[in-house]
Specification:
- This protein is α/β, with parallel strands linked by helices.
- It is built from 19 helices and 17 strands.
- α2 runs antiparallel to α3, α13 crosses α15 and α18 packs across α19.
- The N terminus is likely disordered.
- Bound molecules: adenosine-5'-triphosphate and magnesium ion.
- Magnesium ion binds next to α7.
Length: about 525
Amino acid sequence: MSPISSSTVADWMEPAEEHASEVRKLSTLLEASQALSVTLDLEAGLQRVLEILGRHHGAVRSTVVLMNDQTGEVELQASAGAIQPGQRVRYALGEGITGQVVQSGKPIVVPRVSREPKFLSRAAARPELARQELSYISAPISLEDRTVGAVGIDLHFKPNRDYHRTVKFLGVVGSMIAQAVRVHRLIQADRQKLVDENTHLRRELKERYDFSNLVGTSGAMRQVYEQVAQVARTSTTVLLRGESGTGKELIAHALHYNSSRAKKPFIKVSCAALPQDLIESELFGYEKGAFTGAHGSKKGRFEIADGGTLFLDEIGDLNLATQVKLLRVLQERAFERLGGTQTVHVDLRLVTATNKDLEKAIAAGEFREDLYYRLNVFAIYVAPLRDRKTDILLLADHFLEKFSREHGKNIRRISTPAIDMLMAYHWPGNVRELANAIERAVVVCDANAVHAHHLPPTLQTAEASDTSMRLTLRETLEAVEKDALQDALKSARGNRAKAARLVGTTERIFNYKVRKYEIDWRRFRS
Ligand SMILES: Nc1ncnc2c1ncn2[C@@H]1O[C@H](COP(=O)(O)OP(=O)(O)OP(=O)(O)O)[C@@H](O)[C@H]1O
Ligand SMILES: [Mg+2]
């Protein structure tokens, strides 16, 4: 549809002035409705409407104001011939003529502006207009029984003007604007909803899927992050190795939540916690009557984890008979429930973990070598905490913040002597032990900093002996140095000359230190 100009419409009307004026009004409304419907930008649409009013109806000035629900004020949204660009104009509800129209929802006509003391002319910026007599007409913009704004025009004063008609006409313009405002607000609300949803989803994603709950920046931990990133998206079987408390379970979670299986179940079975005769029914499920007490049938963890990740913890503790069954499942991706004949097929990613020396267990005949190869497709080794001393402080701070929050305390820092003790200790229980030590400190701490005496007695002994402290400081520095060398080698992909430059030393010294710390630099070549 193209805009119909007043002249085209007028062609088939009688030339009487009254008719001409009606036609002009109709065509204005048509143009205005088009101006509002072609754009999603409300302000631009309103601006066009006001320009049309100026062109066809000799409006000297015109304005649209809308209520701002947040501030309770009436704000100028668009104007023609009225204000300087960028100027902000506001009225309190009920203030001035415009404010009154919005408050009452009724149009107001001021035949002679010069005689109206309430006329604020806040939107006026043309002093030359002050010398002319103007009439002002303002009509409400109403949405569902509520006045949300007003549209106002200034016309040259004419003694015999039919204000009644002009008010009616402006009222129709007002209701058209109201529809545009309604659509605009619906779109805004939808958009806001989308934005909110998006923010919420992203926050949830971040909490669940990234590695931010894994703390540590040591070379060893960075290697872990890299390996997790490499393998997470695949369905490769992963074996997590490392001492107790190093964070294997946390890494198993990271693997799951960074995989395409994230929305499917993550099922953990601890092979050590279950009595050996129970583990098979737990893993594979059973049919009714499979054994005394099997009154019904039950799905095993393998079936429950279908589509997701099955995490078998303490795999090194699995008995030999069950190892055979597990091997078959891994080979065929199928099994039968205990006492059942139907073959169940599952699609899952298997992650296993152990703190045992599996190679030793194989040699001792306690662990099947064929199963070992099936599990050890992609191994991630988590270094003990004492071998990544640079993580101790970060982890300690992380747990301090966490437990302070949980216990409602305001403990901000760890004193230097306490830090020294944390660094000196050998952490046989690794991160779990560190977390427990910090939680204990938070509970007993009555100050805003953790002091040495807040730490558990096991840590105190190191400090008591002077020589051990001196040795420990050196050890600490050495650990940091070793870490830095390994980092450099990693960045330089095993190129020792390049790695030496990265840490700002000579190749000779670098090689000397690599030998001293028994770093296998070939490992970093790729
Ligand atoms: N890098 C880390 N960042 C933050 N928290 C960690 C980290 N590593 C371990 N933790 C925390 O330490 C505790 C022990 O970790 P986790 O249970 O994953 O260890 P594990 O290797 O599975 O130990 P185990 O062999 O005894 O089962 C958990 O509370 C875990 O949240
Ligand atoms: Mg564990």
